[in-house]
Amino acid sequence: MKRFLFLLTITFLLVSCKSVPTVESGPQVPGDFTIAFGSCNKHTLRNRLWDDVLAARPDVWIWGGDIVYADTPDTARIAAMYTAQKEVPGYSSILKEIPVIGTWDDHDYGLNDGGVEFESKKGSQQVFLDFLGVGDDDTRRAREGVYASHDYPQPEGKVKVLVLDTRYFRTALTPSVEKGRRYQPGTYGEGTILGEAQWEWLKEELNNSDADFNVIVSSIQVLSAQHGFETWGNFPHEVDRLGKVIANSGARGVIILSGDRHISEFSRIEREDLDYPLVDFTSSGLTHVYTAYSGEPNPYRVGEVVSERSFGLLRFDLEGKRVHFQIVGDEGKVLGELTQQY
Questions:
Q1: What does pTM read for this prediction?
Q2: Which one of 7, 30, 283, 301 has the fewest CB atoms closer than 10 angstroms to its CB?
Q3: Which residues, in sequence order, are bridge partners of residue 199?
Q4: d(Cα 27, Cα 242) in Å, to the nearest integer?
């Protein structure tokens, strides 16, 4: 009997330890507010990261795009995929424990690499907002585009999250003439990513922000521009405009979050008109990644590219004006990290 009880106790301890994953890390700044985010998620594939997201205890989960892979103008089919995603056991736990916000990218928008030309974008917008649980009286129900602002006041300070829509208004991309690259930068000054209405909204939000940190969510990368796929760099004048809007606003602690690429990395640039570096934290993907990745140029890269399934984590030290960035994999393994003072 004693042997049976001993074995039962050992079994219980082993099971208990396995069911409560922890996020490992190196030296870490205190966290007054925590963001977790990710992109590139197929609801038909197993996502091994949801328990790790829960273990990190974020204050908000942010979708960075490609929540489902619909690639169809049939909005009923897109809605059905969103419903299936909400029923995924790990994600259903997220919905019960953590507020969820976010944006879309091309595959959940409905058209691979799609933009302004997509015929079903109005209907797709409504089922996307349904998935996020956006109320009927929300301004996004009546206007074009899914961009939105979210404020998170804390006793120690405030974090503002500005979610962009890089699909609804984006004009045509320029096909690349170079083998192995899909797109190349277009003519400077021609075309747009955000459209004028969204640009004016972003400018106003940053100009009037009293937040200690302003987090801009873009479904595609902003700083990394030489890989030949979708990036803000395909519209170089839009990159310049974004930098000027940020600098002229005087907004504090602006950070960019991005996805899409099926790899994760940190990019950082020093600008003369900003008194802090501008970081673009790319986190992608959640269920599938670029396993054949062998390298690509990015002059702004800090650290190494991660081509394992992962999500992004940001811990804000609001009093110390620091952010600890982490790329987190299965079982809480930290695959990359960066601490930035602001």
A1: 0.92
A2: 7
A3: none
A4: 32
